[in-house]
User: Fold these one by one.
Assistant:
Number 1:
Amino acid sequence: MVTTSITVDDTGFLRLVLARADDALVLGHRLSEWCGHAPILEEDLSLANIALDLIGQARSLYALAGAASGHDEDQLAYLRDDRQYRNLLMLEQPNGDFACTIARLFLYSAYIDPYWRMLATSGSELAPVAAKAAKESAYHLRHSAEWLIRLGDGTAESHRRAQDALERLFPWTGEMFEPLPDDVAVPVAVWDAQVDAVLAEATLARPAPKWQQTGGRAGRHSEHLGHLLAEMQHLQRAFPGATW
Amino acid sequence: MLHQELARRRDPMWRWERPLLREISMYAQGLNQSDPAAVTASPEAARFQARIDAEDKIEPNDWMPEAYRRTLIRQISQHAHSEIIGMLPEGNWITRAPSLRRKAALLAKVQDEGGHGLYLYAAAETLGVTREDLVDQLLAGKAKYSSIFNYPTLTWADIGAIGWLVDGAAIMNQIPLCRCSFGPYARAMIRVCKEESFHQRQGYEIMLTLCRGTAEQKAMAQDALDRWWWPCLMMFGPPDAASQHSDTSMMWKIKRFTNDGLRQKFIDATVPQGHYLGLSFPDPALRLNPESGHWEHGPIDWEEFRRVVAGGGFCAADRLDARRRAHDEGTWVREAAAAFAAKRTARKEAA
Amino acid sequence: MSTPATPIWEVFIRSRSGLAHRHVGSVHAADATLALQAARDVYTRRGEGLSLWVVPSSAIVASDPADKEMMFEPTGSKIYRHPTFYEVPDEVGHM
């Protein structure tokens, strides 16, 4: 009898690894949706590069999770239901326009880049993955920051779109700072400083603090993740046990 | 040579380029472009042809017949458009790739195709056109691209079939182009061929995995081969007897093999690969001629080819719609980047 | 309406320490920062580079092909600049 879904008892180390892996996979998946549709040919290649980095990070992390859970990377990615996914809610939101895609990548990179660097020197089991990921996230941060500056300080339309994107995304950002087991913590002030510096250069206003959305780390997602997974997992679900 | 390529770019600095271009255009007006005899009529043309015959490379600012320039602009831009449109049928499966390994490989491959389009647009730009104009022509429906990309990708096996067959056919066509007489095109093709070496293997590996998998997977692979085989044979273009551009292109060494010659090479290479997979080809007439050593095939439906080239392909409207949407929705982004660059320059000058 | 042209940048890559930067192609970008990132994302996807230059195409001054004879042919007769012009007996060995 083939099992079509798996559940992972993700306490402790597994909770941490799966959260980081799911973040990377879900954002990588979203960015890969741009392939062939980006506003500029050069940017089509850039977004694909970033997506490939993130999918690569997810694979390294699933490999670690696999050793602890007994499931391989594809079982973890393709056979868990959305209630088992631990990613940040912000990352599963649809891409929206280019401003929204860039703003999300920036807000996430401004968190995850210092995170990977802290983790790389922490003695964590994830340190080798973090050391590699830190080099990638440094570029993601720079690329998204440069674009956000251009959109913010470009035309009236691009400014409006970039500001709208920030307003929409900010309520999802608090979730990044929720503690995970045995993890390092990026001080909010580090993220604030990075974000504020770029927003100032982009002539964009930081949205006023309001409620923060939460639930992703506990598997309570927005409606969008179910659709993302339905698409991503379609073949594995339709042909249980097949090798691809 | 770099300086020669650069000089063709539209910039007032190349003041000597413009009279040269005008002169060539005027000269060309009186010629019958498709008549090989006419294009060697002048002393310059004779010298040009002698260089080609001696396997010398032509660089952008060298004298060239207007018809040579126009043929290259048409061919290189069609090739570039094909790479860009070609991202779409395979892109259709990036989000549904059935494993993380396949997902990464497919995304990298489709991204490569974007890169190849970019290299090719750059090669065309050395001939005095802009990428923007070429793209506008594509979006206006005035430019052609390879009709193979107007067929739909219906199952995951289509991704295997495209890599194995479509890329296989493209490589067959592109390897001789690495020796094309026009330097920038030849250099672009060298880079493309180097990068593409993994594409066909990626596709064949998908087919092999499916053929070694469940009965359903093998049926999926067979179905993909059944649908892609004939369109792939059509990729090499009409039979030599009916091809409009072959004679002059061969004389100019833009092209080195005939359509039929390349098609035969492709069939001979591919049929044994298909048999290794345990698949059958959708051509009852396909047989090995023991004397010639070549695989002979049944008649190709050129009516279908003409219909698809004329825009009657299954996905023709979808493909152009997707590119138009990307272009239109990207307008404000390109405007923002240009506005920011202008502001930055102004600030620097004010400081 | 036709799409406005974006500036072209020529891309040069140093592929290994000790080698000069070599021209590899071009990218379109509105400004230098974007050009450098585009060059990185387009031309170094397979570990081709250690260092990148981007130069506005319009900043490059090229020789005129019409001047080819004047510019490059006079050097052809200066054969005394090449080592094989000089005779050294075999017994002397490699020099």
Number 2:
Amino acid sequence: MLTYVIRRLLYMIPTLVGVAFLTFILFTIFGEDPVRVALGNHASEQAIRDLSEMWGLNKPYWLQFYDFLIQILTFNYGESFSSGDRLSEIFARGALVSLSLTAPPFFVGIFLNITIAMLIAYYRGSIVDRLSTILFVISMSISYLVYIIVLQYVLAYQLNWFPIQGYKSGLASIEFLLLPWLIIVLVSMGPDIRIYRTVFLDQTKADYIRTARAKGVSEQRIMSVHLLKNAMIPILTNTIISIPFLIMGAFVMERYFSIPGIGDITITAINEGDFPIIKAMTMMSAVLFAFFNLLTDLLYAVVDPRIKLS
Amino acid sequence: MLLAKSHPPSKTSSKNNSSLAQVFKKNRLVSKIWSKLRKEPQFLICLVILISYIFIGLLGLLNLLPDFQERVGGSYESPKLELAKIFGTDIFGRSVLYKILAGTQTAITMGFIVTTMAIPTGITLGALSGYYGKKTDIIVTWLYTVLSSIPNILLLIAISYSLGRGLVAVCVAMAATYWISLCRMIRGEFIKHKEAEYVLASKVLGAGDFVIIFKHILPNVIHLAIVTSSLMILSAIKAEVMLTYLGVGIQDGASWGAMITAAPGELTNGIWWSLAAVVLFMFLIIYSLNIIGDTLRDVLDPKLLN
């Protein structure tokens, strides 16, 4: 187990170097010139040279990349070009906001979608099953942005149930987050329930279910005890792997409702050529992704004793 | 076929025979699949919808669609029973219908470019890494792990930004990550199939790697590519809306994303027809692609075919 974990951690190194390299190429070599963005088009040659010097952008590319690798190793990405704030602070602040946006609907969604999927699997083949399948495909065929636009217009603008957009920190944020939460839960229903339903239906064909039926276990008990336990394995792993995405925030949602989470910060940084922020966010997400990937594999082995880590 | 191949002198005749037999077998397979698909009325309707969208796209490429830049009436006219104004007009008095048709051309072109880039990449890399394993596998796995460690939307933004925010840039950005899921599936199948008896048999008979990969194993897993391509086109259409909203979408020509992005401001002024029409057009194609993908997945699965 321990050797497995250590080996997996070592495997992360080439991946992270790859991510660093890709980020570097995409943003340093092809991206906007941050000095130009900061100083505008009419800046003097001297000012441009000074700022480039200060941000270390006049060094040769390989040296800049080397600096970047050092930053990753020391977890010190420096300061934002545009605001001058420390990156660790920006990230911590943004991650908290993003989590407050994405985590509640995530948990509500899991609970709600699993329950509905189980009910549908229980009534498999019936008219309810067929109708809901069609309904979910319909709901998946509409753009996410359209949900946001229409629900904001109807619920916030016309009915005044929610504020139209904005954000306040602390507990006051709940008022602003209710509508985004609702939309996230609603949009997750179609795809998630479809996946969970398939998982449940695969399990209903298993031998242990037949055995349980033959023993005379009631159908309810089969569903809620035998089936749920086994179906939880794929569901659980599916869930854990999406946690990094919760922390990294919902880009479009944050942008639309002006919620200052990581997604919003990152998009602003891209538009302003704020390379330190982009670097930090990309690396952070890669680390989170690799870490939760490992966690999923470990958890797989814990919940399913048939799986051996090698 | 096995017997014939072990006798070198009769090689030419056996080759003819086997290829003939294969064509026959393939045709039988095609007709079998078609006879199954024919029984799915929903699939057929969706196929007709898809084909008509492709037709609109082709008309656009041949410059046969009406010019969407042209003014056909006043600013924000509500829908009227008249071809150009059936969905009303936009702020500049341009026909919403013509804009949507031009957007259809963009969407179809995009779907076509993305799939022609991502599907062959996914198949080739998946086949090579699954079949050869070792170093090839390590490199390919590393490549897609790196790409999938970066949030998809960040990568899309970054690539389309660096390539200049045009239609092609957006397509390259999408194709850069869309090949991954197919590659993973094909790789997994190749790992399973390369130990199968029929592969070992043809190896013993002296078949080269190229023949084994493309002639023997690939036909068994190609259905994955067909199903994935319909999902890929619909993700591309959906992603275009997001990218355009975030300001890195297609800047040249009309797009559904641009029309949806303009909608919030229009809605508050009571202009609903533009958004409604785009949502309807987008819904039809995405729903059709969803159904086509699902049906093909069920019908093309070789385990269920026989």
